[in-house]
Amino acid sequence: MAPWIDDPRNAVSWSRESKLNGALVLLAVMAAWELASRAETLNPLFFPPTSTILKTFLDLLSSGEIPAQIVNSMRRAAAGYALAAIVFIPLGILMGLFDGLRRGLEIVIETARPIPPPVVVPVAMLFFGLGDGMKIFVIFFSSAWPILLNTIDGVRNLDRVLVHTARTFGLSQGRTIVNVILPAASPQIMTGLRVSLAITLILVVISEMVGSSDGIGYFILDAQRRLKVDRMYAGMLSLALLGYLLNQLFVVFTNIFLSWHRGMRRTE
User: Fold this and answer.
1) What is the pLDDT of residue 218?
2) Amino acid 18: pLDDT
3) pLDDT score for 184
4) What number of other Cβ atoms are within 10 A of residue 244's Cβ?
5) DSSP per-residue codes, the chain
6) Which of 144, 132, 140 has its CA nearest to residue 90?
């Protein structure tokens, strides 16, 4: 990162300018789409005007149809994501602390990790059917690796002086993990959680497209099959806004949760 961005005032100014430029580019793309569709340069059947898409989106939003589908999707996403965090953060801490455990599980992890998440869907359908269990398992499996690997790296790269100091003061291993290791590794753990958040959103949509009767993924696919293209794009728009909102909420939460870490870096 450029040194001038380390200054909080410059960082805020840079961030605002970047968002403004991004918004202007988005508006320009939407205006070009609108004009091309109206002039039939783009086929209006497949590319309806952006004003039509926005009107459909607002109608679906006010009728509660899209919010209901998003609630169904988020319920599954939250279950799979939380389960992955509950299982793999503790496992990552233990693997970072104990080399024997890490070496023992390394082959299993390196074999399972490259499996593309969509490939897991048929296997999950075989064992869990088409219910929520299948979708939650797919999200759980796919969200696991960024959380696990970042937690392992965070623990392995922390300053060992901290651990030795905790031992010198007579802290038990459990208290050392909770009071020293977990806070020190938390920046990298949060990075893993943020990467997994995007994966969670992708996988909940894919799993709902494959086997579901509700959820935003099913809504988009159903609209495409019925050739209700404006509803399809409205569903995609809601997904884009949802992803942006979740990411911004995560950034705000991270800034609050890791405010001590940023303060410590500024003093270095």
Assistant:
1) 92
2) 73
3) 86
4) 10
5) --GGGGSHHHHHHHHHHHHHHHHHHHHHHHHHHHHHHHTTSS-TTTS--HHHHHHHHHHHHHHTHHHHHHHHHHHHHHHHHHHHHHHHHHHHHHHHH-HHHHHHHHHHHHHHTTS-HHHHHHHHHHHHTTSHHHHHHHHHHHHHHHHHHHHHHHHHTS-HHHHHHHHHTT--HHHHIIIIIHHHHHHHHHHHHHHHHHHHHHHHHHHHHHS-SSSHHHHHHHHHHTT-HHHHHHHHHHHHHHHHHHHHHHHHHHHHHTHHHHHHHHH-
6) 144
Which residue carries 């959380």 as its tokens? 147
Angle subtended by helix axes 216-225 and 182-210, to nearest 10: 30
- Distance, CA of 136 to CA of 260 (rounded, Å): 34
Residues present in the chain in total: 268
Q: And the tokens for 195?
A: 């990467």
Report the alpha-carbon distance of residue 47 to residue 44 in Å, rounded: 5
Q: Answer yes or no: are the C-beta atoms of 70 and 76 closer than 8 Å.
A: no
**pTM score of the predicted model:** 0.80
Q: Which residues of the chain have pLDDT under 50?
A: 1-2
Q: Residue 1: its pLDDT value, please?
A: 47
Q: What CA–CA distances, in Å, run from 2 to 5, 10, 16, 23?
A: 6, 11, 17, 24
Residue 181, CA distances (Å) to 99, 144, 178, 267 in order? 16, 20, 6, 21
